[in-house]
Write a structure and sequence with these properties.
The complex is a heterodimer of chains A (184) and B (150).
Chain A (H helix, E strand, L loop, with lengths): L8 H55 L2 E4 L9 E6 L4 E8 L2 E8 L2 E9 L5 E7 L4 E8 L17 E8 L13 H4 L1
Antiparallel strand pairs in A: 1-2, 2-3, 3-4, 4-5, 6-7, 7-8
Chain B lengths: L4 H9 L14 H50 L6 H6 L5 H6 L4 E8 L4 E8 L10 E7 L9
Antiparallel strand pairs in B: 1-2, 2-3
Chain lengths: 184, 150
């Protein structure tokens, strides 16, 4: 009886083909997993920024006694709204190059700055309503492929955010001697 | 093929398996088991990725629903207290939320609380498991202070 000590060419080809198939599948899966990780990170970063912006804008409007938008008076370039509170303190929201910037001013002196990176192609609008006194901020950004589909996640995911807040709402239940009078 | 005596001795001295056979490679059974395991892992990983995409979409919808409820509460809180019960009955999702959340339904409830009243809003929309799991947000409305009170 003869001993078999090697593989035939056919066996070698079959094994190579099977290995190639499995390696291709694995490589695709690994690529997909890495892409998915990047997309998730970009998505969560944007959502966290949106949540921070929403919280901060609502808080600022509630503490402000009046709001001035570009429709009411000429504002510095890029500024969307100025929120004025008691004294000479002003909070400005402006948009430039995909970043919404919140600047806190005391007269001409800048007290603090806070940037909200929303990515390129973002569109920000501020509106006002008189009765009841509300200020709203609308932020819109389409996905990189132009699709407004919220499920189409990519490295720059789409965003649609609307925040409404009552002007001087924090003083609504305060005793009449506090800044409520200024709001009126 | 002719083997010398020395070759034959070496072959006999080579390591053998438990059954006394020379092992020169993997058996077909081992290869099939390895392939099946690999295919099983790949097959299990693919649905996980799809599930992750859905999870992100659900998270986003939940955030938008919370924003909508916060906006509605801000609007209601800015109204005079006398108009509140009627406004709560006529609640409807904003066009912005209606565009984001399919078939969104907004309901409100105004109940007396220990001090003032408690306003509860809940939002449901057409998504798997959302009909019986609405997003709820509550606010407490304090009575307006009277002029001259401390």
């Amino acid at each position: 009886m003869t001993r078999r000590r090697a593989m035939t060419l056919i066996e070698l080809l079959v094994v190579l083909s099977a290995s190639m198939f499995i390696l291709t599948l694995s490589a695709k899966l690994i690529h997909q997993a890495m892409r998915s990780h990047q997309d998730t990170r970009a998505f969560l970063d944007l959502e966290r920024t949106a949540a921070r912006l929403s919280h901060r804008f609502r808080e600022d409007v509630r503490r402000a006694t009046s709001a001035v938008s570009a429709d009411d008076a000429p504002l510095p370039d890029g500024v969307l709204v100025q929120l004025r509170s008691s004294g000479s303190r002003i909070i400005e929201y402006g948009e430039r190059d995909g970043t919404l910037r919140r600047t806190e001013l005391e007269g001409d002196k800048i007290l603090s700055r806070d940037d909200f990176a929303l990515g390129p192609g973002v569109s920000c609008e501020v509106g006002r309503r008189e009765s009841p006194a509300l200020v709203d901020l609308t932020v819109t950004r389409a996905a990189s492929n132009g699709s407004p589909d919220v499920a189409a996640f990519a490295l720059d995911p789409p965003l649609r955010l609307r925040v409404e807040a009552g002007l001087a709402a924090d003083f609504r239940h305060a005793p009449p001697s506090l800044p409520r009078e200024e709001a009126e | 093929m002719h083997w010398s005596t020395a070759d034959r001795d070496n072959a006999e001295a080579a390591p053998k398996t438990g059954r006394g056979r020379l092992r020169s490679g993997t058996s077909s059974l081992e290869a099939i088991v390895a392939c099946s395991l690999l295919c099983g892992v790949l097959g299990a990983a693919a649905p996980l990725m799809v599930r992750q995409g859905r999870l992100l979409a659900e998270y986003r919808d939940h955030q938008r629903a919370l924003e909508e409820l916060s906006n509605q509460i801000e609007r209601l809180m800015a109204m005079p207290a006398a108009d509140l019960p009627r406004a709560v009955e006529q609640l409807a999702p904003s066009p912005f939320a209606a565009a984001e959340l399919p078939d969104a339904v907004l309901r409100g409830r105004l109940e007396p609380a220990e001090q003032g009243s408690r306003l509860t809003l809940e939002l449901t929309w057409n998504a798997a498991g959302r009909a019986d799991r609405p997003v709820r947000l509550a606010a407490w409305i304090q009575p307006q202070p009277k002029e001259g009170s401390p």
